[in-house]
Amino acid sequence: DPAAPPQSKGLLGRLLGRGGGAAAPRRLLDDEMLESLEEVLIQADMGVETALKVTANIAEGRLGRRISVPELKHLLAEEIARIMEPVARPLPLYPSRPQVVLVVGVNGSGKTTTIGKLASQFKAAGKGVVIAAGDTFRAAAVEQLQIWGDRAGVPVMTAPEGSDPASLAFDAMTRAQADGADLLLIDTAGRLQNRADLMAELEKIVRVIRKKDPDAPHNTLLVLDATTGQNAISQVEIFQKLADVTGLVMTKLDGTARGGVLVALADRFGLPIHAIGVGEQIDDLSPFDPEEFAAALVGADA
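-> C-alpha cells emitted (302 positions)
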C-alpha cells in the first residue's frame, strides 16, 4: 500500500523468519522472545518506553503460550494502531478568514514541499489560499514555493532576500484579508544552529500577525522527516519550545523501515498527525490512516 512504508517482511521478519500462512510454526511467547521483540521495536525507532509498553501489552495473558507469526503480527499491528488512533486527525478548519497556518521545521524536512502540497489540495477543494514565503534567507525555498504557487494558481508573497519575515507575514495577512482568502500558509526559517534567533523570529511573526487577528496563528504545523528516526523526537521537543506546535506532518514515509518513530511520537507527545508525505507529487500528501500504517509497519496484510 503506497500510504505506508512498504517492507519485505516488516518488523518481524528478522525476528521470526518468513512464516506466513496457517501452517506457520508456532513459537513460545516467553521472556526471551519478548526481549527479542523489544529489541526489534527499539531498532525500528519506536523508543525504549513505547517498545516496552507494546511488548507488555502483547505479553499480558499470553505468556507461556505458543503463537504463530501471523498471530503475533496481528497483535502487534493492533497495539500500534491503538496508540496511533487518537492522533490520526485531519488539519482542523476554523471559520476565521483567513485561517493562519504557521509551518515550522528544520531545513530539509520537506516543509516547503508540504506547504506547496497543502496549498494545492486546499485550492482544489475550492478554498482561497495565500502563501507567504517567510524563509526569506533561503532563495531556493522561495523559488520552490513560487513554482508550487504557479502550478496551483495560488499567490505567493515574497520579500527581498534576507528581509524581515515578520513584515512579510504582515503584508501577506493584509493581502489574504483583502482577497477574502480562506487560508494563509506561512513558511518559516528552519535554522536550528542559532535557536535564540529563530525563536525571536517566530515570536515576532506571531506578534505581528496577532495585530491583525488576536487568535492567529490558528494552527502551527511541525513538519518532520520520518527517515531521521529518533532525531524527530528531539525536533518536537525543540519546536515545542520555539512555537506552540498544534500538529505534525510526517514526510518521506515512502519505503522507510523507520516509521516506528511515529509510534514513539504518538505515545510520547500525543500531537495530531494531520498528514503523511509519501513522495513528491501533489497527491502524495495523504491523511494518516492508523490501521494501514500499523499493518504496513509490521508487514501484515491490512
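Residues 99-286 form a domain with the Rossmann fold fold (CATH 3.40.50.300).
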